[in-house]
Amino acid sequence: MESWSNPAFRPYEETTTVVNPSHRKPSTPRAANGFCGPTRVFCVPPPPSRDEDLLTRPSWVDAKTALSQITKGKATGNTAALRLRARLQTHLFHLGCFVQRHAGKVLFVGLLVLSTFCVGLKSASLETDVEKLWVEKGGRLEKELDYVESSLGQGSGMTNQIILQTAKQKGANILRRDALQAHLNVVTVAARVQIEMFDITWELKDLCNSPSAPTFDIHYVDQIFEKLFPCITITPLDCFWEGSKVLGPDFPVIIPNLGSGVRWTTLNPVKLFENMKTGFLLSAATFFPFNTVEDFMKRAGITTGYQEKPCLNPRDPECPDTAPNKHSQQALDIGAELTGGCYGFATKYMHWPENLVVGGVKKNKTGHLVKAEALQTVVQLMGERDMYEFWKDNYVVHNIDWTVEKALEILRAWQKKFAEEVLVYSRTGNDTKAYHIDAFSTTAMSDILHDFSEVSGTRIALGYVLMLIYACVSLLRWTDMVNSQSGVGIAGVILVAISVAAGLGFCAILGIAFNASTTQIVPFLALGLGVDDVFLLAHTYVSTINSAIPYEDKIGECLKRTGVSVILTSVTNMCAFFAAAIIPVPALRSFALQAAILVLFNVASILLIFPAIISLDLKRKKDDRIDVFCCFVRPSCDEVTEMTAMENSHRYSAPIVAHDKHDVVMRALPSTGGGGNTIRTLSILAPASENAASSRKDLTLSKEVPKVAAFKSAAKTSKETHSDRWTLTRFAREHYGPALQKTSVKVCAAVVFVALLVASVWGMLKVTDGLDLMDIVPRGTSEYRFLTAQSKYFGFYNMFAVTQGNFEYPTNQRLLYEYHSAFTRVDKIIKDDNGGLPDFWLSYFRDWLVGLQKAFDKDWRDGCINQERWFQNASDEGILAYKLLVQTGHVDNPIDKSLVTQIRLVDAEGLVHPKAFYNYLSAWVSNDALAYSASQSSLRPEPRQWFHDAQDVELKIPKSQPLVYAQMPFYLNNLGGTKQITEVIEEVRFICRKFEDRGLPNFPTGIPFTFWEQYLGLRFYMTLALLSVLAATFLVVAVLLVNPWAATIVVAFLAIMVIELFGFMGFVGIRLSAVPAVVLIVTVGIGMEFVGHVCLGFLTSLGSRDQRMGMAIEHMFAPVVHGAVSTLLGVLMLAFSQFDFIVKYFFCVLFALMLIGLLNGLLLFPVALSLLGPTSEVVPNKDRNRIETPTPEPSPRKERSKGLRAAFGKRVHPRVNSDNSLTTITEEPPSWHSSHEIIVEPEVVVETTTYPPSPGFHGPPKHHRQSSNEDQDSDGISPLRGLSGITTKVTATTKVKVEVHTPLPGSVERDHIYRHSSRRNKEGSPSVRVAEMDGNSDSGGGR
Questions:
Q1: Mean pLDDT of 842-854
Q2: What is d(CA 465, CA 474) in angstroms, rounded to the nearest whole number?
């Protein structure tokens, strides 16, 4: 099929209008706009305009026509691209026609399907767990976290509840008694917090991590120790007696025979123990292991408690007499007391380093504190797993179906109440007015991340409303509500919103979890990508409704032209996002998959459902109904006002000149009514080739024109008047496009491009990695102040060095010691008073055994123990050592008494006897519980329980299983920024790799590694994602356009846009984290909407690079600008978020992305195309600016009746195409069975006589004559007699060679549905082609 059958190129049919003067009403105002209304005269709309894009942009309108030009040798070009596009356009055309025929059904079914997927949003899950969001899938960190979880269980470990105090006056010294007193009051209030859940009262003692007390067989003694052992609280108050007030207990502990109850404010453990030894019941004293308790206290450093520590307020009545400043009443040097840190009640295991409890310090030359700006208290709570294990066998929870989830719920509720109480007291207390006191916990962090990830329905709704308003206003025509497109714009935005919801619902059905990227970026990204296509389709729809395309083909033609562009950008975006899904980071992968799925839903909605909406709008226009309010019909005008000759002569006296690229045939129509009311018309049948047009002179009708010409001129005037309003397309065509073609503008654009690129590269170098937690917390809140101060003064985090299984701990103890001491070189790890590291579990284990060995050696020397047995006077520690020494470590032969004299529990090198290592371990964990709990080693499998009883003569000690998990705790401090944290991570990782190579399987774990280790590989994965996206974009563009050079230019500019946005981040101080990395990946998808359409418009246009660039800008300027502005309006709502992070990292970045896209897509990219752009897909051989006039397709095949076939006795054959160019089609008598050439030399004389108006005459004042060889009236009407007029005569002669072809057997299949052609051939009429034509014309005039 050739493009003569293209609906856009069919000649429109003539219009005959009968003027009845009787219908004229004097009250009707006169106008020349051709429309009905109070200021309109003509009700008949102007004839539809031709579509000239077929000649200047053939592959955009109809790729098959362009391909036929190449096939016939009339042009050269990219045949592969044209074949692919022709096939796509054919399918899109049929799809559009189908949708138009069944618009209601398609719309109903489409919306029903989308609504069904929207239901999937009910199953959406919001993921806020950092481990599940940013830990590399299948990577090292995920394996390590899985190992920890499988070994300890999910929710094991401990959590920290932190109270931080700073002065409101910046830089003020907080080492004051009133400051510490205020801190004490806040901590005391917080420690008394209680909550009611599951009909149980929960307080701090029920939730905290407290040191393990030794276990005895005497129940009430165990109860005493359990109540006295307080929660572990790291606080600067432990340097003073007032620290005992924090420990409690709330109710005094009653000790039998010792009088009043005991609290830590009055407790002296040494004196209490002496009183217990002397005042205990004799029956119990006989069996109570006083020596064991005494030894336990010595090992733990439990001495006088807080009784010998100075008092902050020596005048306090409760201040003990043993306090150093009780009697002197001297003011304390608080800085000196805090220097070196503080100690808890068990000084061996509870040393709180100085930089853990005070921050912003300043020291003198001797190293003593003279100033500090912050105080910090840390309350350690159990994790939900540990809390579950602690309470699961307790009677208190037997009726509430105790689970880990319930434990977590209780912890969260208590932490929330804790923070609230601190905040209330800090605001209302008289002693806290000069200070900021804030509380924070892991629960608060989880809540912040959850709030940050929550979908703000209000912001999204307002953003979409702004888009709706913009779509309505931008497509609205106030002066012509029938041809207005507001309803289409509103429906398009709503459709895209529904498709976004449906796509997210489908993602939820697939199990793709939502996160902050999904909730904050994806809705606006998908809407922006979809709205761009909506405006593109609406723009093309407007340009096709006024063309000569048959009504039933309009939507098909619209979809045929824009569908390829929509498919190009959408498929590119889908492939790009799917390619980005190869990144193993779960948050980025989820985002990429969700974005790709939403693009898929968008393109399906745009190509299937939106055409149905346009079809309904087309029907609305056909029925002359008002836009949006389609229930109202524009008032019909049944008056036709006659225009007198004088009016015509004044209004339409300008000559009508035939366009130099079109053939004009003057044809007279037969009268349809009274002879005086006939209007004659000009019919433009087809555009001719430029050569043919240039070989003849223009036919000009001067002075006056017939009334139909006046009508057409009025219609044209109306169209021009309507187009006088300012539009983006007109601006691009008349001003912007021509400006870009100027050399000076190109030079300026090149300079701007180079400067912008250099500045962007420089900005990229300034981008640092990291994400401050205060960025995701609303300003002015307690959490924001806490995070700011904590980052500035402390930067405190827990860290553990984990050793794994498949390692012989008993025989590799030296390697474990070396591993532990290697962390001394990490500067940010807190050291003890001697500059070394705190002991770890193996050190505590060894020290315990050394103590036992000493007791055994003493008893051996005293004769209390021999090789075979011990005696009654032997010490408990000596007996325990004897039981340990006889262990062989073999299950089949566990006891060997000869070992008592052969081995030592710890050899001279400080190594535990390896053969019985796991027997010793069972005894240590059970009998030195305080040291084991202080070590925080979390040994797995848990060592077996075995409690020593000196009266038990059983020597066998159960052997524990080989260890597969052990950890060494460290405290990290002064980690204020991402750079410092990542440096520590790299140092620690280097140590771990070093010992991994030496055979020790190990890894670090803790919050810094979970949150910040992503930055070690973030740039790598971001670069990998960008390269994948750009590579996918290149492949898709190169395949769909079959033009690698065009794909190269497109990808180059997409990469440049990424660089520019990256540079912008550096200039405004945005750090590189996962979210900006996602936006940088998004840049490729959004950028494709700016450059993809322009590139396709450039490729499909004809002419020089400048001309093609101008045509591409004219066609794509309005859709691109509308799409960008609508997206900006949607993103605008992010600027009003309470989260600075959303404003800075989402709004600013996306806003900059839109501006960068507009700058590149509408300025730099077109200029680059005008200089380096690929050649056109079609390059005509003769005139590079347009293709030659296409030849017509064969007439539609018609079935002849049997009677007619019998009458003629011949078959009917289809006509065969000719390669010659068509200019004018005429029809001959039905001698279709002949075949010969004839030479025709016609002469055409056009004579026009204009008569002056006469009174009372309302008929046609002009007489138009047409003659060929003979002068006669065209319609049999004689000239008016008795009137003189001006006569203009034009004569044209030509020589035409005509080929008359006899139909040949066979048939030619037509792959386009031929409907309502204005050119009808009689059945059996021959096919006439004009082989060549030359001619001349002359004109003359007379009176």
A1: 93
A2: 14
Q: According to the model, what pLDDT value does residue 1213 have?
A: 46
Using CA atoms, how far apart are residues 318 and 522, in angstroms rounded to an integer? 62
Exposure on the CB side of residue 564, measured as CA atoms within 13 A: 30
If phi > 0 it is left, if psi is from -120 to 50 it is alpha, else beta; for residue 1314 that is beta
Which residue is associated with the tokens 């366009």? 659
The alpha carbon of residue 839 and the mean position of all alpha carbons in its chain are separated, in whole angstroms, by 47
Inter-CA distances, 40 with 24, 44, 287, 627, 642, Å: 13, 11, 118, 19, 13
Segment 428-442, tens digit of pLDDT: 888 888 899 988 877
d(CA 606, CA 499): 9
Q: Would you state the structure tokens that stand for residue 1291, as one six-digit string?
A: 């004569």
What pLDDT is stored for residue 355 in this prediction?
Answer: 85
pLDDT of 3: 43
State how far the Cα of 532 lies from the Cα of 1117, in Å rounded to an integer: 11
Residues 6+ apart with CB under 8 A from 902: none
How many Cβ atoms from other residues are within 10 Å of residue 1199's Cβ? 9
**Is residue 1295 a contact partner of residue 1241, using CB atoms and an 8 Å limit?**
yes
Q: Count other C-beta atoms under 10 Å from residue 67's C-beta.
A: 24
- Positive/negative CA dihedral, 1124, 1126, 1131, 1135: positive
Which candidate, 305, 303, 327, 302, places its Cα nearest to that of 314?
A: 327
DSSP string, 511-578: TPPB-HHHHHTHHHHHHHHHHHHHHHHHHHHHHHHTBS--GGGHHHHHHHHHHHHHHHHHHHHHHHHH
Give a three-class secondary structure readout of 651-718: HCCCCEECCCCECCEEECCCCCCCHHHCCCEEECCCECCHHHHHCCCCCEECCCCCHHHHHHHHHHHH
Is 380 within 8 Å of 160 (Cβ atoms)?
Answer: yes
Residue-wise pLDDT for 336-394, tens only, equals 999 988 999 888 888 898 888 999 889 888 888 999 999 999 998 988 888 998 898 88
CB 346 within 8 A of CB 269: no
Average pLDDT, stretch 1084-1093?
Answer: 87
Asked if residue 941 has a cis previous peptide bond (ω within 30° of 0), the answer is yes
Residue 45: cis peptide before it, omega within 30 degrees of 0:
no
Q: Which string of DSSP letters, residue by residue, matches 597-657?
A: HHHHHHHHIIIIIHHHHHHHHHHHHHTTBPSS-TTSBPPP--------HHHHHHHS-SPEE
Q: Taking Cα atoms as reference points, which of 1157, 1100, 1205, 1216 lies closest to residue 53?
A: 1100
Return the minimum-mean-pLDDT range out of 278-282, 325-329, 1206-1210. 1206-1210
Q: Are 1043 and 81 in contact (CB under 8 A)?
A: yes
Residue 262: predicted pLDDT: 81
Mention every residue, 6+ apart, whose C-beta is less than 8 A from residue 1212.
Answer: 1198, 1200, 1205, 1303, 1323, 1324
pLDDT of residue 588: 78
DSSP 853: H
Say yes or no to pLDDT of 1235 above 80.
no
- d(CA 463, CA 460) in angstroms, rounded, equals 5
Q: 1004 is written with which tokens?
A: 């670090």
Q: Are 735 and 1111 in contact (CB under 8 A)?
A: no
* Distance from C-alpha of 968 to C-alpha of 842, rounded to nearest angstrom: 9
Query: What is the C-alpha end-to-end distance of the chain, expressed in Å?
Result: 51
Q: To the nearest 10°, the Cα dihedral for 1065, 1069, 1074, 1079?
A: -30
**Cα(683)–Cα(15) distance, integer angstroms:** 10
Select the more confidently predicted residue: 843 or 1338: 843
Distance of CA 1197 to the CA centre of its chain: 55
Classify residue 940 by its DSSP letter: B
Q: How many angstroms separate the CA atoms of 117 and 123, rounded?
A: 11
- Please check whether residue 1301 is in contact with residue 1218, taking contact to mean a CB–CB distance below 8 angstroms: yes
Separation CA 548–CA 659 (nearest Å) = 18
